[in-house]
Specification:
The structure holds two protein chains of two kinds.
Chain A (H helix, E strand, L loop, with lengths): L1 E6 L5 H13 L3 E6 L3 E5 L2 H8 L6 E5 L11 H13 L2 H7 L20
Antiparallel strand pairs in A: 1-3, 1-4, 2-3
Chain B lengths: L15 E11 L8 H27 L9 E11 L18 H18 L10 H12 L12 E8 L7 E4 L6 E4 L1 H5 L7 H12 L18 E2 L4 E2 L25 H5 L21 E6 L4 E4 L3 E2 L4 E5 L9 E3 L2 E2 L3 E5 L2 E5 L6 E9 L2 E2 L4 H4 E4 L12 E6 L2 E2 L4 E7 L6 E4 L2 E2 L15 E5 L8 E9 L2 E2 L7 E4 L1
Parallel strand pairs in B: 1-2, 1-3, 3-5, 10-18, 20-27
Antiparallel strand pairs in B: 4-5, 6-7, 8-9, 8-11, 11-15, 12-13, 12-16, 14-15, 16-17, 16-18, 19-21, 21-24, 22-23, 22-25, 25-26, 25-27
Classes of the chains: A alpha+beta, B alpha+beta.
Chain lengths: 116, 472
């Protein structure tokens, strides 16, 4: 499963290290960083719960759904978090599951003046 | 790692933490994007970069031995609102076959305006390529999640302004950006497939070529690309044995060439990508810019002179420092050859250091020292010179390094009036002209300083405060 970890902008080096160690120790990994404070984490529920224990101690939130978004999230991080939540929505996942997406020749994209 | 990138890196391997700076270029009328449209475009780009991370994970896990994870992505964004009316831009001359003139007359108008609005003024940086490189570099100055800085950054423009084409990349040696035009994509079969388009276009940013044949574009199996100059042998032109690949079709698979185009190889099988091996300092060449005289293996220079550093992976250097002072100017001469100007404020024996995406260069002080003095003595084939000792203090038997010039072939080395034993020195043909390592002999007197003098067939060094060894 994937979820977001939102780092507190005031997190100390030690707190940031603790977050990374928690992810490493649980066999999780950071799949993608979102702006200055967000990260998509691949891991299990136990890791999500462990990171939730660091909210207020380096993290401002662990987000799996819109309801988890911290109230005072900065605007830039909020845009990125909402965009990631779109990728987790049933409608988006249904689009991704369409096998017709794959195997298409890029030829129909071709014809500009860069590489296409 | 440092957050400062060298604009215009000669290579763009898909290695390290890579930042996609999505620049939404908004405008009036039909160029206005809603929050919902921006959010959806950003979601597709996030998904596209996730595809690339997953392709890397799959590739690295199948190497023998498996390579450590060497590629990940980050996303940030800028929003620019322009006053430019989209109706003021011309139409594409031939929508099925747009030209460079179309690109210049349409896309470049809103791109230049957007880059200006983001602070990269034409007056300061007149060249579009340099301005976009600076725009990407600016995005790297913000530390990402957990304090990490990106190794490289690239720009993806997303706009509803007219474009000459729906999705394209201008890879190095062009300007090095991608553009996605949602309205044109929505009007094509690529609707709802921006993620695949984003992954493919990002593949171009990092120097992988197309592998397909189309009406107006034919891949060339003989063209060499990427940091290792690998031919495009999965190009589908007359190639019935080709395999699925992201650069050929919208497949989330890789052929064997694309990873090489992205710089992914571990030829020494140490589990680390070769391009992620720490840089080394193999040699210096000192250049007096006034006389344009190069001194290979030089170790003495003046402030303002150039030092050419040769070594592995120096192409990826970002900052060069002399004794901790940042060089005001550095440039690449070759992939294994970096030049840097010695800062004015540097003096004495200092170490030369630099950082790449793999971290600090892997060099000992003995490999990286240089004497900065004014005026620098001319290179000579005459008497030896001693610039310094490491350590400068110790007891008899201590191994001391004598740093200097013209040190090959010592016939006598004295500490005070006591001769050191030269029998442990290597044969003359492999001796270093800038360094001798030798055991300190018995003290000529009690504790205290004594001059160290090196004598060769060409004479003896002149004692100075730098060539004094203190017995403790």
């Amino acid at each position: 499963m994937s979820f977001l970890a939102i780092m507190d902008s005031a997190a100390t080096d030690a707190q940031q290290a603790a977050v990374l160690n928690t992810i490493d120790d649980a066999g999780g990994k950071i799949a993608l960083r979102l702006g200055a404070h967000g990260a998509v984490v691949d891991g299990d529920q136990a890791l999500s719960d462990s990171l939730a224990g660091l909210v207020g101690d380096g993290l401002t939130g662990v987000v799996s759904s819109e309801a988890d978004i911290p109230a005072d999230l900065d605007e830039s991080t909020l845009v990125l978090v909402n965009a990631w939540l779109i990728t987790q929505s049933p409608a988006f996942l249904a689009e991704m599951a369409d096998p017709a997406r794959l195997g298409q020749s890029w030829a129909s994209l071709e014809s500009g003046v860069g590489e296409l | 790692l440092t957050s400062i990138l060298a604009p215009g890196l000669p290579l763009r391997p898909m290695i390290g933490l890579l930042l996609a700076d999505v620049v939404f270029v908004d405008g009036p009328d039909s160029a206005a994007m809603t929050d919902q449209e921006r959010g959806r475009a950003l979601a597709f780009i996030i998904k596209g970069l996730t595809h690339l991370s997953e392709l890397h994970e799959g590739w690295r896990a199948h190497q023998q031995p498996p390579v450590s994870t060497s590629c990940s992505f980050a996303v940030t964004f800028d929003l620019v609102s322009l006053d430019l009316p989209p109706a003021s831009l011309p139409a594409v001359s031939n929508p099925k076959k747009p030209t460079v003139d179309d690109f210049n007359a349409i896309d470049c108008v809103w791109i230049d305006a957007a880059v200006d609005a983001l602070g990269q003024t034409k007056a300061a940086i007149p060249d579009r390529k340099a301005r976009i490189a600076e725009l990407a570099a600016d995005a790297t100055t913000v530390a990402l999640f957990a304090g990490f800085n990106p190794a490289d950054a690239f720009v993806i423009f997303v706009t509803k302004y007219p474009c000459h084409w729906m999705g394209y990349t201008r890879p190095y040696p062009l300007e090095g950006f991608s553009t996605l035009c949602p309205p044109m994509l929505d009007a094509s079969e690529w609707k709802n497939r921006y993620d695949l388009v984003a992954a493919h276009e990002t593949g171009h940013i990092f120097q992988a070529p197309d592998e397909y044949v189309a009406e107006n574009l034919t891949c060339d199996p003989t063209v060499k690309s990427g940091p290792f100059g690998v031919v495009n042998s999965n190009c589908e032109l007359g190639n019935p044995t080709g395999v699925k690949c992201l650069m050929k079709r919208s497949d989330l698979e890789l052929c064997s060439q694309t990873p090489l185009h992205w710089g992914w190889t571990d030829d020494d099988h140490d589990g680390t990508l070769d391009l992620l091996a720490p840089a080394t300092i193999d040699s210096f060449t000192v250049v007096n810019p006034r006389l344009q005289v190069e001194e290979p293996d030089g170790r003495v220079a003046e402030p303002g002179w150039t030092v050419i550093i040769k070594g592995r992976n120096v192409w990826d250097a970002r900052l060069v420092t002399f004794g901790g002072v940042v060089s005001p100017h550095m440039w690449l001469r070759a992939l294994d050859e970096l030049a840097a100007t010695i800062p004015d404020e540097v003096s004495g024996i200092v170490n030369v250091a630099f950082t790449t995406r793999a971290g600090p260069a892997n060099a000992t002080f003995e490999q990286s020292w240089i004497l900065v003095t004014q005026p620098a003595p001319p290179p000579n084939n005459g008497p030896p010179e001693v610039f310094g000792l490491i350590p400068q203090r110790g007891t008899p038997g201590t191994n001391v390094k004598i740093l200097g010039a013209s040190l090959v072939g010592p016939t006598r080395i004295t500490f005070g009036h006591v001769e050191a034993n030269l029998s442990s020195l290597p044969p003359e043909e492999v001796q270093d002209p800038h360094q001798i390592e030798i055991a300190v002999p018995l003290a000529p007197q009690g504790p205290g300083p004594v001059p160290v003098i090196v004598t060769t067939a060409r004479g003896s060094s002149t004692p100075s405060i730098f060539s004094s060894f203190t017995y403790s």
